[in-house]
Amino acid sequence: MKAPLVYWDHAATSRPKPPEVVQAIKDWFERLGVDASRGSTALHQEVSSRTADLRRRLGLLCGVPTERVILCSGATEAANLFLKGILNPGDRVFATPFEHNAVARPLLAMKKEGRIQLDLIPSDPLLGPDPEDLDRCLGSGPQPRLLCLNHASNVTGLVLDLPPLIRWAKDREALVLLDCAQTAGRIPLSDLEGHAYLVPGHKGLMGPPGVGALCLSRDCPIPRPLVEGGTGSPTPDGLMPQTLPHALEAGTPNTPGRMGLLAALTALEGREHILHQAELLSLKKIWDALGEWEEAKKLKRMGPHPDTRPRVAVLSLDLLGTDPHETAMLLEAQGFILRAGQHCAPWIHPLLGTHPYGTLRISPPAAVKKEEVQRFAASLFPY
Questions:
Q1: Per the confidence metrics, is the pTM higher than 0.85?
Q2: Domain 6-16+271-380's class?
């Protein structure tokens, strides 16, 4: 008899999606079928109105003006758009060890090309950086142009203490990029006062894959376009429009994805804190069930205790010599869907002592069954 599916990989993508999301996408394919800017029919106007509502909701989420919400294919495109469009030759960039490859790889590519100076902030991987760490990173060199901060680690679940870091950057007239992939839809963002926010639609916002946003504060410079092309409107000189958001949105948009994300945000409204607390309760049940294995030195739970520092519902296990990929495959046979490896966050693993194989990551939903938790703990080390 096949084991029932237990999906504990919500840090990768939330599952299942709300039924409203499925219905909104289905409605676009079956009834709407157009985008917001390539026509003026009643259908186009309806899609345009819904797209404007999506921007409004994302703007409220991040505390930025509606027109400064740039709709993208996800956080990776948003990161590339911002980093490659805002940085200039010779700029110095600070980044944390917690960065996802969406941020890390563009930065490394620009460093390899000799375009920027890149500094990783020395910090405790289980506590995160503080202003003193930034001072040490600064040394006697030039002031940074940009500070990149991952709001919450997708490896350990740690939520960084952002306000003092953002104040440090603003005191030095540096821009602040916030990667909110693990916090959007769970932890309030609108009071953080960053300059730019990376927001994927398919994680905590509960939307479909292939849609997200770059949200820019009112005082953030406008990046150069990453892509030029059609926007659905003419310009006098034939170049890209100069006004946002169209200046940074070229090409055929993922309109069904946008409709799905709007439906997700509507369904999520007012439930963010409730879901976050429920997911943390699920995580604590799993954390507690693994205590005996840690006492037996079979594994190490990586990240803050669920009752202590602010965190999201992400937990990594160092299996202390056991390959996490093999364990994940064995657990799949028991019905458990988890993630093994470096989780696209390579800089943190040498600090955690989990390089090169990474960890076994658990990111549970808002409700877990006692039987699931017990079966998981028993299945980790069956022999």
A1: yes
A2: alpha beta
